[in-house]
Amino acid sequence: MKINLRTAKKPKKYDDEEQLPQQREYQKKCELLQEEIRLREKARTTRLIKKLGSWIRRVMNRTNSIISSLKQRGFMQPELRFFCRSYR
């Protein structure tokens, strides 16, 4: 059973013994939901980091292939040498 923390009605706190199990159950469900939210956010962050890393690798590979093709054709200018790994 899913609980929306924003709209969930908290059980009233009474001193009598009947309400204690409901309070404990509500507290337990809230803790589980918060843990689930934290794990989802962590997984989303991990996926975004992986996507960003693969995008950077693609851009670097593309840049290096363009530079190497320029070098082969003799169009390599001195200011572009800074970006090319093979000149270092």
Automatic annotation (TrEMBL):
Residues 1-20 are annotated as: Disordered. It comes from the Bacteria. This is Uncharacterized protein.
